Amino acid sequence: MNALTDNALMLQVKAGNLDTMGLLFERYHRPLFGFLFHMTNQREASEDMLQTVFYRMLKYRHTFTGDGEFRSWMYHLARNVLVDHSKQNKQSSQQYDLADVAERISGGPMADERFQKEQELDTLNRAMAKLSPDNREVLVLSRYQELKYEEIARVLNTTEGAIKVRVHRAMAELKKIYLTLENGKTAYKL
To answer: Do residues 138 and 163 lie in contact, with contact meaning Cβ atoms separated by under 8 Å?
Structure first.
C-alpha cells in the first residue's frame, strides 16, 4: 500500500506539484541516510549525499514512470550518488566520528552490558567496512533497509536469484570477517 502511495506522490512531483516531495522526504530521509551511512561510515558525507539524492529526485523526476516501485528508483539514484562520492573522495571507508564513540561509552546504570553490546556492534561495523563494496551494499539493502530481494534486483539491475546468491555469499564473508575480528580481540585480552 505504501509503494502505491509513494508512486502516486512521485507522479504528482513529476507533474509539477513539488510540495509533495516533502512527504516523500519525511518518509525516506531516515532510511536513506542509514543506507548512505552504512555504506560510508561518514556522517557528514552521508548528510550531504542525502541532500544530493533528493535534489536528483527533483532534477530527474521526468525519468520516474511509476511502473516500478518508488523505493527502487530512489535507491538507484542513491547508488549513483555513492559512486560519484567515492570517485571524488578516495578515502578509507573506515572513519569514526569521535563524538559518537564518546557518546557510546559514557557511563550509566547498565554501562557494562551496554558496553558489551557496543563492542559487538563496533566489531560488526568494522567487519561490514572490510566487505567489498558490492557485498556491503547488498547486505545494507537487505538487512538494514529491509528491501525485498525482488526490489534489490531492480535496484541492481539483476535477477532475484542472483541477489539471493549474493546475499548468501556476503553473509558468509561477513561471518568469516566478524569471527576473525572477534578472535583477534580475545587474543589481546590476557
So the answer is: yes
The pTM of this model reads 0.67
Q: How far apart are CA 72 and CA 54, in angstroms?
A: 14
Rounded Cα distance between 52 and 72, Å, is: 17
**What pLDDT is stored for residue 94 in this prediction?**
42
For cell 511502473, the residue is: 67
Give dist(CA 168, CA 173) in Å, integer.
9
Helix (H) or strand (E) holding 142: none
DSSP sequence for 73-86: HHHHHHHHHHHHHH
Cell 539524492 sits on residue: 53
The answer to whether the CB of 75 falls within 8 A of the CB of 141 is: yes
Rounded to whole angstroms, the Cα distance separating 147 from 133 reads: 18
Res 91: pLDDT: 47
